[in-house]
Amino acid sequence: MTTTSSNAGSGLWRFVQRIDALLRQVAGGGGEVTEAVPTTRQLLGIGIACGATYGLAMGLHAASMRGWPGVAQMLSAALKVPCLFLLTIAVTYPSFYVLSVVRGGASDARQLLQAQLVGTALATALLASLGPITVFFTLSTESHGFMVLLNAAFFAVAAVLGLRAVWTRGKAALGAGPGAGSRGLGLLRAWFVIAVAVGAQSAWILRPLVGRPGDGFVLFESRESNALAGFLEILGDMVR
Amino acid sequence: MFAPGQVLRSTGEYAPDAARVPVRPLLSIVVVCGFAQGAVMGFHDGRALQALFSGLKVPLLLLGSTAVCLPSLYVLHLCLGLHRDFAAACRATFVVQAVAALFLAACAPLIAFAYLSSDHYPFATFVNGVAYLGAALTAQQALARHYRPLIVANPQHRIVLGCWLLLYVMVAIQLAWTMRPFVGWPAVEPALFRSEAWGNAYVHLIDALRKLFRS
User: Fold this and answer.
1) How big is the CA angle at B128 (ends B123 and B130), to the nearest 5 degrees?
2) Chain B residues with CB inside 8 Å of A28's CB?
3) What pTM does this model have?
4) Are B43 and B52 in contact (CB under 8 A)?
5) Percent of chain A with pLDDT over 90
């Protein structure tokens, strides 16, 4: 029993070390883009593993329900967080690619996908590292509205960091083409607004991510309103 | 080696450019000094049990907040390509904790004097609040001293510093709220934690503000 748990522990530690090594490759030494970048599969692996880790921390709020509904809600959050990022990439990647080509930037589809995946890997890694804070607040508060706002704030910070990485790499990709210049960079800025809106709406579609302890297991909520309206409603409920 | 002068001035092995991070002596300072101040803080109205509880809780508060935020500090360094400076950031973090604990321990005689001169509970909480505010400001100076060379070398450390301060303060306030009472209401039996649900400091703050503006 002890050997099994110590093997599992060392296996988990090796896995964390592997992710750490890959993230060091992604981030480089001083914020610059490095040549040695993990493969697409490795980046996807980081995104899924780190996203699922944060999903577990996020879903813990619903796990105060007794029995399987709480566990199911927590596991569904662990599945939904990586899905949120993958859905955002799936929806925004075509426009990222087409706009960069139309504006005369580099037409290397793989390079642009790599830029988005690097951003996702860094964003989910940051979220996973914020997991202990989410768990701490989950254990010490009963307010569902507060937990939703806290998670929204963490996602916003992670999104800024992820988009910063996309900006660094996307700028390099757009700058490589003959017609790219300030026009191309303006385009990249416009695309950021689209990416943020799609990410927020993806989270809205996949809700509940935090889950209300009293509601039982809910996989998806009804398709109504939108992310911004929902956010303002929760904020209003908090201060009303 | 216990060298409070070196810690407060950030010199010797506690200097920003020192070769290694002296984790053990710094943690010892936080535990010993935190316990001393906590014990005095909880001794209001001569309650020995509350003094013991508060003495145990102050080091837990300082170190617990750091432990919860440390993973995000590391990943922030990693994401911004600053991971080579993580050891220096850790040194800054631990030195700041030690400086805050030393300041609090230095305030313990003042707090004891205030308790002896008055048994007014709001006055006791006010005196302790002032001591913690002073500790935060002193720690802030030490943090600036340690981060100055890092920011000069790479201005991105400013982002890390801002994020770290925000997260640390947010967690420390909530942890302090969760671990209350520290001074202990004289009419209530000494307790490690409050008997009611832990609650959320920020939700209570919003409630208090709402009531203030409605009345």
Assistant:
1) 95
2) 81
3) 0.84
4) no
5) 33
